[in-house]
Specification:
- This protein is α/β, with parallel strands linked by helices.
- It contains nine helices and ten strands.
- It has helices at about 45-55, 75-80, 100-110, 125-135, 150-165, 180-200, 210-215, 235, 240-245; strands spanning about 10-15, 20-30, 35-40, 60-65, 70, 85, 170-175, 200-205, 220-225, 225-230.
- The longest helix has 18 residues, at about 180-200.
């Protein structure tokens, strides 16, 4: 992929439920290697927009291009196979599998070896999964069932699972939801470090503004389904409309 080709290009995406436009003509370009936050009040349309990007929902209008290819309307598995990984507000792991096995399942699916999952995990090459667990700081928890992990470690495990897809684009839907304030910054600092080391492009939603302004290269603000601001953190912080509808400043 040429360096000038954006990882994600969105053109006029719309989605309505009944008479309410949850996403109303969203357009933007996300360059390679950028970490961008998507913020806005509850009900602004952030999760709906993420669901469109990953194929869980079909847009009523507009197009989504990933690395120059039109992925509009593709099913989630097809989008994931192209190199788009997503985490969710509520952690999604296999509770009875170990941390290592959770990452193995994701890695084997990415490698096109899903059929070998009938084989006990101990017999499979686990090193790629172990490497990912080391990367997110969970090497010591590899053998523990996911159900027994602390909540912060579950979030790290979900990140490792997302990375197992070897993505070029990482979509994080409120990655620190439910975490203590001190843990939020640590998780996002870890995520940003991994993204920059791997050259990943990241789009994330987040309600903790300390995290957003510390981590994001750029910030987009969504309000009533429309982008009302898009710029660097200082520019967005100074935007009067953003202050009025979301940041709560006078």
């Amino acid at each position: 992929m040429p360096d000038t080709e954006p990882v994600l290009r969105v053109e006029g995406v719309q989605k309505a439920f009944g008479g309410v436009r949850a996403v109303d003509g969203v357009s933007f370009v996300l360059p390679r290697g950028e970490i961008r936050a998507l913020i806005g009040p509850n009900g602004a349309g952030k999760s709906t927009f993420f669901n469109i990007l990953t194929g869980q929902l079909r847009a009523d209008a507009g197009r989504v291009y990933y690395r120059g290819a039109d992925i509009s309307g593709l099913p989630p598995y097809a989008i994931a196979r192209r190199g788009v990984s997503r985490t969710f507000q509520i952690t999604a792991t296999f509770a009875t599998l170990s941390a290592l096995e959770n990452v193995q399942v994701a890695w084997l699916a990415h490698a096109g070896q899903s059929r070998v999952l009938r084989t006990p995990a101990a017999r499979l090459d686990a090193e790629p999964a172990r490497a990912l667990l080391r990367h997110v700081g969970l090497a010591e928890e590899a053998s523990r069932p996911a159900a027994t992990l602390a909540y912060g470690d579950l979030k790290k495990l979900e990140l490792a699972i997302a990375l197992a897809n070897d993505p070029a684009l990482l979509l994080l839907d409120e990655p620190t939801a439910g975490m203590a304030p001190a843990e939020r910054g640590a998780l996002m600092t870890l995520t940003a470090g991994i993204a920059r080391a791997r050259g990943l492009t990241v789009l994330f939603t987040e309600h903790d503004m300390d995290v957003v302004f510390a981590i994001a290269d750029r910030i987009m603000v969504l309000h009533q389904g429309r982008v009302i601001a898009d710029g660097t953190p200082p520019v967005v912080r100074a935007n009067g409309e953003v202050q009025a509808v979301y940041l709560g400043e006078d």
